């Protein structure tokens, strides 16, 4: 089966006063149709930049300097700007953390959804509105015809996020990238949207990249997980492999900080230190200064250890019996 999304060696750099900074460093992964891949890491790990790089949304002083991004076998990086623009929304779409980045506050929801439909499809406004209504219905919005007449500020945060997801679905894209799409929502609404996203992947066959800092979220949502640190993927595997038997000390640290894994009232363990500045990365493994298993060997580049498709970039990977 051809992967819906195949990212190979993606590298993105930014020109700063301190010189070139590599925000995405040789990132590779694949997502099959109907599957959800969780892209996880702390703030500053390169998750969002990876999403923007896939869509070709990196502006100066940033630049995608290497790699391939194949959507249904078509390399987006080889397309002209006009052809890439046509692919966005139609073949690959993005859901942002703040739906107000997607929604125009001075236009009714129906008007802007109809405009998005007609950009890619020759359709009357009435047909476009009906198409938009069905999309709202798919994401569980009650009375969708009424919601089309509303302005974004008249909707709750959870409802606006559903609208943003519905807009991403308008053209039945092969790939949807969701960047921290439920972070600002309360737990109950977040749970509802995650359940709807899982159902969407199953029913529409879309491949979804779910970008988040929260391993607890992707543990119940994703089929596969990639863990990022300092611009690199340091661990990847199935959700069961990564959550049930993490092999990188950083992944273990993220899991240890999840409250649900500990008794109430006990102090949560935390990863010491903070994410390094990309302009001042340590020699060798970038996680070395924070890692409890670090040795002198970690001052050299860590090898990629792959076992049963569970890969880890580490000199001293964890072993689980």
Automatic annotation (TrEMBL):
<dbReference type="InterPro" id="IPR003439">
    <property type="entry name" value="ABC_transporter-like_ATP-bd"/>
</dbReference>
<protein>
    <submittedName>
        <fullName>ABC transporter ATP-binding protein</fullName>
    </submittedName>
</protein>
<keyword id="KW-0813">Transport</keyword>
<dbReference type="InterPro" id="IPR027417">
    <property type="entry name" value="P-loop_NTPase"/>
</dbReference>
<dbReference type="InterPro" id="IPR050388">
    <property type="entry name" value="ABC_Ni/Peptide_Import"/>
</dbReference>
<feature type="domain" description="ABC transporter">
    <location>
        <begin position="5"/>
        <end position="255"/>
    </location>
</feature>
<dbReference type="Pfam" id="PF08352">
    <property type="entry name" value="oligo_HPY"/>
</dbReference>
<keyword id="KW-0067">ATP-binding</keyword>
<dbReference type="InterPro" id="IPR013563">
    <property type="entry name" value="Oligopep_ABC_C"/>
</dbReference>
<dbReference type="GO" id="GO:0005886">
    <property type="term" value="C:plasma membrane"/>
</dbReference>
<comment type="similarity">
    <text>Belongs to the ABC transporter superfamily.</text>
</comment>
<keyword id="KW-0547">Nucleotide-binding</keyword>
<dbReference type="GO" id="GO:0016887">
    <property type="term" value="F:ATP hydrolysis activity"/>
</dbReference>
<dbReference type="GO" id="GO:0015833">
    <property type="term" value="P:peptide transport"/>
</dbReference>
<dbReference type="InterPro" id="IPR003593">
    <property type="entry name" value="AAA+_ATPase"/>
</dbReference>
<keyword id="KW-0472">Membrane</keyword>
<keyword id="KW-1003">Cell membrane</keyword>
<dbReference type="GO" id="GO:0005524">
    <property type="term" value="F:ATP binding"/>
</dbReference>
<dbReference type="Pfam" id="PF00005">
    <property type="entry name" value="ABC_tran"/>
</dbReference>
<dbReference type="InterPro" id="IPR017871">
    <property type="entry name" value="ABC_transporter-like_CS"/>
</dbReference>
<dbReference type="GO" id="GO:0055085">
    <property type="term" value="P:transmembrane transport"/>
</dbReference>
């Amino acid at each position: 089966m051809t992967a819906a999304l195949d990212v190979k060696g993606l590298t993105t750099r930014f020109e700063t006063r301190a010189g070139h900074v590599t925000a995405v460093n040789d990132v590779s992964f694949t997502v099959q149709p109907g599957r959800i891949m969780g892209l996880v890491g702390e703030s500053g790990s390169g998750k969002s930049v990876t999403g923007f790089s896939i869509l070709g949304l990196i502006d100066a002083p940033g630049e995608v300097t290497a790699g391939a991004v194949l959507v249904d076998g078509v390399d987006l990086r080889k397309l002209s700007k006009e052809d890439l623009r046509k692919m966005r929304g139609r073949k690959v779409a993005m859901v942002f953390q703040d739906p107000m980045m997607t929604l125009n506050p001075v236009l009714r929801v129906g008007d802007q959804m109809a405009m998005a439909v007609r950009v890619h499809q020759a359709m009357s406004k009435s047909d476009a509105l009906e198409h938009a209504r069905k999309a709202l219905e798919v994401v569980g919005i009650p009375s969708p015809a009424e919601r089309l007449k509303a302005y974004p500020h008249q909707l709750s945060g959870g409802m606006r996020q559903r609208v943003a997801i519905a807009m991403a679905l308008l053209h039945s894209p092969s790939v949807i990238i969701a960047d921290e799409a439920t972070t600002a929502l309360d737990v109950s609404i977040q749970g509802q949207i995650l359940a709807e996203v899982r159902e969407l992947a199953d029913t529409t066959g879309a491949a979804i990249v779910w970008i988040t800092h929260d391993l607890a979220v992707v543990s119940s949502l994703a089929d596969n997980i990639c863990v990022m640190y300092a611009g690199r993927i340091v661990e990847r595997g199935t959700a069961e492999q990564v959550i049930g038997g993490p092999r990188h000390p950083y992944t273990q640290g993220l899991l240890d900080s999840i409250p649900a894994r500990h008794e109430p009232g006990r102090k949560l363990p935390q990863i010491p230190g903070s994410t390094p500045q990309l302009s001042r990365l340590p020699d060798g493994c970038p996680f070395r200064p924070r890692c409890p298993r670090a040795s002198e060997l970690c001052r050299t580049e860590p090898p990629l250890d792959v076992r049963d498709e569970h890969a880890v970039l580490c000199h001293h990977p964890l072993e689980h019996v």
